[in-house]
Amino acid sequence: MVRVSVAVEGPLDEAVINRLAQLTEIEIGTVYGKEGKNALRSKINGYNHAAKFSPWVVLVDLNHEYECAPLLLASWLPRPTPYMCLRVAVKKIESWFLADRTNIAAFLGVSASLLPRSPDLEEDAKRTLVNLARRSRYLSIRRDLVPTQSSGRQVGPAYTSRMADFVNKIWDPSRATEESPSLSKCIAALDQISLI
Questions:
Q1: Is the pLDDT of residue 196 over 80?
Q2: Which of 83, 95, 133, 144 has the CB geometry, 3.0–4.6 Å to 51, for a possible disulfide?
Q3: What tens digit of pLDDT does each residue of 48-78 get?
Q4: Which whole number is the average pLDDT over 139-152?
Q5: Is the pLDDT reported for residue 113 higher than 90?
Q6: SS3 string of the chain?
């Protein structure tokens, strides 16, 4: 197995990259970052330099800063080194969860018919997921994923831990690739690393 260094925005992204590694012939080494997108951006040149010598994967959300993933890639890393793999979740990592329609619907306790048909096109997949959780038949999902009005937060108090649990135990990335082109491209890129 190829051992890969990784940099991500946060702990949920770390859970995702660990799950994707299970599908490919790569082994996750040290995971860097986990301090948000701006911190990741400020360190990308250092990660790129390290990727001259060994494989690196950097995973980042597109959000609304760029119109498309290629523009982000060109801006962040116009000259990637040979072992650098910078991948972009379009537009947020949550779109990849929504793409596994059957499992995320069961986890959230909602009808699969409520889920978007093209999750990569969602303007804010995290907000979509939280709004679906508002309709959950499970009190624990509503309590953990949905913020209270007074909190001023976008997500509930146990959002990250509950979604990481979903990623680790339930999420089927292979199925999700059918609905998410950006996830499909990410897995294909990880497969290429395994050939190094």
A1: no
A2: 83
A3: 999 999 999 999 999 988 999 999 999 999 9
A4: 95
A5: yes
A6: CEEEEEEECCHHHHHHHHHHHCCCCEEEEEEEECCCHHHHHHHHHHHHHHCCCCCEEEEEECCCCCCCHHHHHHHHCCCCCCCEEEEEECCCCHHHHHCCHHHHHHHHCCCHHHCCCCHHHCCCHHHHHHHHHHCCCCHHHHHHHCCCHHHCCCCCCCHHHHHHHHHHHCCCHHHHCCCCHHHHHHHHHHHHHCCC
pLDDT at residue 64 in the model:
87
Q: Which neighbouring-strand residues pair with 4?
A: 28
- Residue spans per domain, the chain: 2-90+180-193, 94-175
As to burial, measured by CB atoms within 10 angstroms (0-12 exposed, 13-18 middle, 19+ buried), residue 70 is: exposed
Beta-ladder partners of 61 = 89
Question: Which CATH architecture does the domain made up of 2-90+180-193 adopt?
Answer: 3-Layer(aba) Sandwich (3.40)
27/17 Cα distance (integer angstroms): 10
Partners of 58 in the beta sheet? 7, 86
Q: What is the arrangement of strands in the sheet containing 26-33, beginning at the earlier edge strand?
A: 26-33, 2-8, 56-61, 84-89
